């Protein structure tokens, strides 16, 4: 009896199927708890610097993976819901003085098509004269 791996080795994509397969897949993100992020800047972002900085800041207890999916847009996949929720609740986050927009990725979302145009901020006002 063939193993699952052996069966998939025998499969081949037709030319018209290859294009669809090259789109960043949500299936990859579905492993764990995925978050889509975008750095709002005109400057070039070095992926390795961003990955090192965010891993250091967020310190996910169960780990995370990070993948660049297009220019200044990244897929963070956390291994535990608690780590993901801490990052989402702990924002806003920044990298090199630029805001990082974050949103939890749902199973039917297409990562490069998600609109990231909102961020929550807390503002505290002191000595307000009424």
From TrEMBL:
User: DUF4283 domain: which residues?
Assistant: 35-107
Q: Which Pfam families has this protein been placed in?
A: DUF4283
Q: Give start-end of the signal peptide.
A: none
Coiled coil regions, renumbered to chain: none
Q: What highest taxon heads this organism's lineage?
A: Eukaryota
The protein here is known as DUF4283 domain-containing protein
The organism named in the record is Cuscuta epithymum
């Amino acid at each position: 009896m063939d193993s699952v791996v052996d069966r998939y080795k025998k499969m081949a994509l037709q030319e018209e199927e290859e294009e669809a397969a090259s789109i960043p897949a949500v299936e990859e993100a579905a492993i764990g708890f995925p978050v889509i992020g975008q750095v709002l800047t005109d400057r070039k972002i070095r992926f390795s610097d961003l990955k090192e900085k965010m891993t250091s800041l967020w310190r996910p207890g169960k780990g995370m993976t990070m993948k660049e999916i297009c220019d200044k847009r990244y897929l963070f996949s956390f291994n535990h819901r608690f780590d993901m929720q801490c990052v989402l609740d702990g924002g806003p986050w920044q990298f090199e003085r630029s805001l990082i927009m974050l949103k939890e990725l749902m199973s039917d979302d297409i990562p490069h098509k998600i609109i990231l145009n909102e961020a929550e901020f807390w503002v505290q006002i002191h000595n307000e004269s009424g």
